[in-house]
Design a protein that fits this description.
CATH topology of the largest domain: Rossmann fold
Order of helices and strands: EHEHEHHEEHHHH
Radius of gyration: 22 Å
Number of helices: 8
Number of strands: 5
Mean pLDDT: 86
Strand content: 5-15%
Oligomer: single chain
Helix content: 40-55%
Shape: extended
CATH superfamily of the largest domain: Resolvase, N-terminal catalytic domain
Structural class: alpha/beta
Low-confidence stretches: none
CATH class of the largest domain: Alpha Beta
CATH architecture of the largest domain: 3-Layer(aba) Sandwich
Distance between the termini: 49 Å
Length: 183
Amino acid sequence: MKVGYARTSTLDQVAGFEAQIRDLEAAGCEKVFREQISSVADRRTELEALIDYVREGDEVVATKIDRLARSVTDLLDVIKRVHAKGAFVRIAGLGSTDPKDATGELIVTILGAIGAFERRMMLERQREGIAKAKAAGKYRGRKPTARAQSDQVRELAGKGVSKVEIARQLGIHRASVHRILAG
């Protein structure tokens, strides 16, 4: 059975996400696990579900290596875990990553390294852009987090305002309100 994995880093990448799903279905994937989360996130629940789902002889298909992982270590770990289930990974256009195939393993390792390099270069450009914007006085930074509003949360709670209402008034999640008040 062919099982697909589609991932984008953000919810804004609609066209790319839809293209992956379309390509995976065209490749014959009977089931496609989908998530829109950064590859460097602590836990990718759909990828974990996919690894749990696959069985011996299954083929895990992704459209690109960087959809599975952004580092060589992570990529090789995902492939190792899929292989441990008796399944294998196929990157569209690259072929099998069968560990018995030295060439396939080499190609995956090299392309994984290129993906990791690409990500580091993107982050460097981002930091450079932020530094330049700060120097020009145009960078404001990201919106304050809930912790930055801790005093306001405590003040409103002290006045008897409900946690749900505090969250609504300050535009933060109610779990953040609970965390601040518990801490």
